Amino acid sequence: MKSNKNTTFYLCLIILFINILHLPSCKKEAKLSIKLEKKFLLEGDRKTNFYDPGGVAVDKDGNIYVADSGNQRVVKFNSRGEFITNFGRKGQGPGEFLSPWQIAIYDNELYVYDWGRNIQKFNLDGQYISGFTLRGGTFLDFNIDSKGNIYVGRWTSIKERFLVEKFSNDGKIIKRFCEPVEAPTRPLTLILNNIKLCIDTQDNIYVGFRYINKIRKYNSRGEF
What we know:
Blueprint: E1 9-22, E2 28-42, E3 53-58, E4 64-68, E5 73-77, E6 83-87, E7 89-90, E8 96-97, E9 100-106, E10 109-114, E11 118-123, E12 128-133, E13 138-144, E14 150-155, E15 164-167, E16 173-177, H1 186-192, E17 195-199, E18 205-209, E19 214-218
Parallel strand pairs: 7-8
Antiparallel strand pairs: 1-2, 3-4, 4-5, 5-6, 9-10, 10-11, 11-12, 13-14, 14-15, 15-16, 17-18, 18-19
């Protein structure tokens, strides 16, 4: 059963400043400085009460979108944290969710990853555009590159050869890459290959292995 208790969800907007220092030895060393620019409260009420919130995305106007996983919806706020609208409901049809977990924005459209099942596309007002179903297992994470290609991280088993699948924007498979870490049993394989995806401005893909302190870097063609 869902908890009826109000949940407060803190969202911090952080600007990262990277300073590159040139040392006398001619080696470059990067220093990362983190500054908290603004902090505000997305506070629960009958419209915005969260239940197991997941991913967060921000559009070019500063509007904030939160994947409210337990309530099967996406909630939209303005840049001051004020509620605008929400969309989605429980179900498996277009515009419906079972557990919306990660979200991303590309070309003024919002992509919602429903845990292990599908990816749906909406306009920024929450109107359904299209979607496609993920087949062949459970998927952990997703991300979008600068060309709109979609990368999905698979929760692998011993029989599966690759952890990452690359799709076109309309859901057609392009490539599979990133071999799993080998383990003697399926339960251990699932643990060791629990991954997270990140993409930089050059469309390099970083695959983070949560439990073994390892990151692999691939180019946009899936080459290590």
